[in-house]
Amino acid sequence: MEQKMTFEQAKSCPIQFVLAMTDTLNVISGKWKLQIIGALLFGKSRRFTEIQRTMPKITPRMLSKELKELELNGIVKRTVHDSTPVLVEYELTESARQLQEVMDSMIQWGISHREEAKREIALEKLAV
Question: Which part of the chain is the HTH hxlR-type domain (predicted)?
């Protein structure tokens, strides 16, 4: 019987820490996945074209591929409505909604890092 790993156990063991981090990155890594998740965090569900509008540089083919991968990994739920024309909507699973905290931390870090980089560049220009 496999024992569940706790957060504290993973943090205290380098091997488990790396495995847990690898599992996470395998699901959300790539140029578009976090952006798709971010687009779906705002609102209950969205149609394909609504998601694409929030990410103008992604091609329809790439969006379709990424949505399929996210669905396979249990991050996105795809619902097909029996209507004419057929309506397909995407929404985050409950598990994926837990990424909100991770993404909030990443955004806070990104803002802070950008400001720090700007300060360093300004200081370098003053030193020259």
Answer: 13-118
